[in-house]
Model the fold of this input.
Amino acid sequence: MIAPLVKKEILSNLLSYKFIVVFLMTILLTALSMGIMYRDFDARYADYMLIRPGAGDLIALTPPNPFSVLARGLDESIGRSYEINFHNIVVRSGQKSNNLIFRFFPTPDLLYTVQVVLSLAALLFGFDQVCREREQGTLKLLLSHSVSRGELLLSKWVGNFLTLVLPFLTVFLLALLLLQLDPRFSLSWEGWLRLGLMLFLFLLYVALFLSLGILVSTLAKRAATSLVILLFLWAALVFLLPNLTTLAARQMVEVPSVRGLSEKRQQIWTREILLGIREFDPKAGQQGAASSWRRHFDVVNHEQDAMEEEYRHRFGRLVSVAKSLNRLSPVASFVYGVNAVAGTGIEEESRYKEEVLRYKNRVYKGLMDKSMLGKEASFSAFHYRYRSLGETFREGLWFDLFWLALFTVLFVVASAVAFLRYDVR
Done:
């Protein structure tokens, strides 16, 4: 009995004005998003090819992530160029986007399109599924036949979900086929797993908001009331709550400014240089002078690394508190989860900077041995390995998946309970 009801829902949606609007909007924005982000990736990759280090260049740099076309996240920050010298790391712009849109507006990647547009479209499909039919009198008529309330609600959910995701899936898969023509997007088996998991997160997110829309529709008596409530909830979950909780986290955890850290690094360097000049003894000979300067450079390196470690510890604490508070909204779990799978999240950036710091310390030791002790030093090129999917799961992705699924199931169960008690008169 469910199949005919699902077919009825799909046909009813296909003939409605909101389907035409959502269909055109989904196809246009998805295609536009993929096109813009592909051009951005292409420009950043061209920058990488121009500035990538040659043999013997002490530069930490990694190519742009192909998954940034779908979820850009912090990929531009990860793609910065880190020039290594014997006492410091000089940060260059690296692969910087030339698109002015990104400087004034949120990045229009597929993640943002789904997060904002498809969530709103899901609410527009779900807000009147029950209360509108009650107002028109068709709900009482449907239930007068041999159709249970559970079957009717399930058919509405399935029919509307299929109507929502089929246009999106069509454009998404077509865009992926076109991207496969570019050899830079050749994926390993794990890459395809990541892509499938990202698609699953997209669909789960749409299901979440559709379930919320149907839930409010079963609680409201009028479609207009349901729409107003859902628009408020959408704005709160997508924009208001994540931003307010981030501000609250910044008040709870104090992190030193980047400018202050830079000034402290310069103070440490100046102090040790002056001490080295003051302690210089011409009678000590070349070996004694080298040993003295090596001691001062070791102090600079050690204190700057300790300062960097303290900063990363505080910043990590801020990120942890902010993410915990952000997850009061399931939208935050969706964003964190997709970026983690894509390898463009904040944990990936933090891990990348740790690798750069370790590379700097290897370079420092080699340079000191070469300049002070006359030893030959050879430096391997910097190479960064992204976290595996298993590591990503263990480091928090499982919770974001669970949290999204939990909210979706709660909304579905709550709507079923509310509909069983719903007065159809």
Remarks:
- Residues 240 and 412 are 24 Å apart (CA to CA).
